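Newbie here. four chains, one complex. Structure please?
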Amino acid sequence: MSATKKETGKVPPRQNPMCAVCEVRCSALFGSLKGPALARVQSEIEDVALSANERIYGPGDAGKDVYTVRSGMVRFERHTEGGELRIVRVAGRGDLIGLEALLQRPYNDEALCCGPVKLCRIPCALIDKLADEQGALRRELMLRWQTTLEASEAWVANLATGPARRRMLRLLSRLSELGLPDGTIWLPRREKIGAMLDLTFETASRLVSQMRREGVLDLTTPRLARVNAQALREASAAQDAEGRDSATV
Amino acid sequence: MSATKKETGKVPPRQNPMCAVCEVRCSALFGSLKGPALARVQSEIEDVALSANERIYGPGDAGKDVYTVRSGMVRFERHTEGGELRIVRVAGRGDLIGLEALLQRPYNDEALCCGPVKLCRIPCALIDKLADEQGALRRELMLRWQTTLEASEAWVANLATGPARRRMLRLLSRLSELGLPDGTIWLPRREKIGAMLDLTFETASRLVSQMRREGVLDLTTPRLARVNAQALREASAAQDAEGRDSATV
DNA sequence: CGAGCCGTTGAGGGGATTCAAGCTCAGTGG
DNA sequence: CCACTGAGCTTGAATCCCCTCAACGGCTCG
């Protein structure tokens, strides 16, 4: 995934992301495209900037596009059979979302922005066209599906398992991956944390406070926080060890 | 540990499922293939019959095949970051499993048989070859990935959310889909139910007993049961209504 | 300023776990 | 034949975790 060929030089201006120099190119869908194909891509892709809680797409929308996340975090909400709201996954920088649309299927979830988000909107028609010429793109697409599937299964295993405290610690760990390298993360509203971990917002609040008292979390502005990676690792290890004890008796 | 090196050449031409008349053909991967391609497929596919708890593949295995489930039920186990066992998904008749292998990736989970299972083992090399000639197959593959992803997200929303009783009711509902039309289902051991729903086996047992007393479930042989679809729907509706009440206050 | 949203914290109750006992059933060997 | 085991299942009692209900404080905005 390190650059295959970049620096094709000073690609002239367009209004769109200029994939050749895009900051997520190496991990992006069109990372493998060459010259002319890449040029055509650039005229059809549109980049969009959204702010917190804006809707990218939702169930029922006629899906004609997929999106690459250039920055920010996207959450996927859906309602359970019982009607409650549940967040089933989040996507971050480099992820490709809305894959259902490539199969002419309606979107399954509602995709919403956590904080400001930048996207590339990619028409499905463009991908269909390119895929016929560029075999590598097909493989890349399958890879995206697989990556998404892995994220979903990991969500089941790590964020939907065990006591609330453990789930919270794992969420912080996941948020750290999506956040800045200095540990700054986007911390959702308590109610959203609840929807991710299947908790009430009160319990989510108590856990956030607990993390704060323990020095794992440091709340800065309303929706931003800093994670102490070291303390998080220690707390997680302690929590996991405890679980192992009772399981190994 | 089941056979990994097959296809040693002298495979008799006639031992395979005959896709053209296979009972799952319409929903199967090669449902769209025509004449000659189909004939070639039949000489390379091997059908396997496994019994309860046999391992189909596991993390670390060199993935060289994918499998179509012809009958029975397959569960996917993995360990959480804390080391506990968790079942993250199940597959049934018509499902294609082990898709990671198509991307030369190691399998993510351990795939195990619930009860007797019949599979078609399909070499990845065969799919790669066919995909170059038959465009429809590529689309079919993507559809499989998407279907699997949807199943995984539904698992999060329905089997990992809410009180234990609701999760159990939803599990029964899901097992019914995979079972016979007369309501006969394969009911896992209590410990496995726990691994699916994130419960202790005692709680799983209590819930099974409860379902039985309510007439939702009727245990026959050790691992088989019959579901009263009507009673299950009613119990689910009641459970969901209750949830909605407290949520809507 | 009051209204409303978000977050925090406390008190009490309920649901799931934990610990523990006892049951059935298959297999084994006396 | 029957005692003896061990695995799986069931059930009870006590504990603990999380939910529910409730009050309150900070903040923005009309």
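Moderator note: Helices of chain A lie at 35-44, 124-133, 135-159, 164-178, 190-197, 201-213, 229-248. Residues 189-191, 201-202, 205-206, 208-209, 222, 246 of chain A lie near DNA strand C (CB under 10 Å from a C1'). Thread marked as resolved.
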